[in-house]
Sequence to fold (367 residues):
Amino acid sequence: MTLNYVCTCCGKKTPVTTHEPHCECGGLFELDFKPQPWDASLIDRNEWSIFRYRAFMAMDDDSTWRSVTMGEGMTPIIPFSDDVLFKMDYTMPTLSFKDRGAATLVSHCKAIGVKNCVQDSSGNAGNSVAAYSARAGIGCEIFVPEGTSPKKITMIESHGAKVNVVPGTRDHCADVCRAKVKNDGAFYANHVFNPFFYEGMKAYIYETFEQLGRIPANIVVPVGNGTLFIGVVKALEHLLESGAIEKFPNIIALQSELCDPLYQARLAGSKHAADVTPSPTMAEGIAIGRPMRGDELMDMIYRHDIKMVTAPEDKILEARYEIARRGIYCEHTTAANYAAYKHYCELYGPTPDTLITMCGAGIKSDH
Ligand SMILES: Cc1ncc(COP(=O)(O)O)c(C=O)c1O
Ligand SMILES: [Zn+2]
Fold:
């Protein structure tokens, strides 16, 4: 299959073999790809990773992924309370949900002959890209903002990747990395820019559908740059269009109350992420003041009437404690998901049949 990117700004097509991070006009790429209708008989049941759903994913070829996968995805769904199910995403190879996307993105990098890549991240995506790059034999350099959990940095370095700790905010860290891409021509293996990352993230929904035989009524999704969010929306739209599900579930998208550009935009009825000045938050993973795909995210939010809620900062540790006391040790940003869910219940009443991702392991935010 010859795959193309299509520019989200000017519509120009570019073959996915390009090493450029975006269209000539500066617009971000999306894949010119529509998956075939969902059909459970097309799941490769002998493959115990996200690639069992590759019949519905954009793939460069059907061989490269085999030397890159580390069995990511396929995470258990367990009951936490009468109303809440947890998807245990921190049980993945690098202990976070980003492995789904890194597996597809790095497979793509390998398929098109990338030798070295750079990436900026709050820690987890960088950790995933570093690990999968090591597996694929690709050199890797990761930019993280100052204040990133030391454990995340140690993990990234353990894979042989160079780590640059950039003073200032997460957004500034991305600017510094992008300057390097522009000046040195390094391949930008970035979870926000490169659409192959979303192909992996879609499996969150495919797994859930296969595991439960249905989609829960409510799905809580953290949104920083929105990589899981976009994957979830794309996969649900796919299932809906295929007639596999009858209605779109209620998606509850959460941001930190100290960094909430999309929440503010939703409140104001705006199509564009609001200008906010992020304050430091324990939820480091969602501290994105300027989401690059802000317009795309807002479009999805309005298209599906997606609810937005913020995670109260002073409830994050309490949530982490409550979860840990039930045997589950998640990182602070992940506890924010549960804190935001509880806040949602305070605002709108009991919300049964809710799926929440346990997206990062507790060990990652032990300082
Ligand atoms: C634990 C955790 N949760 C949520 C997020 C938010 O993901 P995204 O920026 O793709 O929305 C991240 C991102 O790094 C994260 O590490
Ligand atoms: Zn363009």
Remarks:
- The chain has a mean pLDDT of 96.
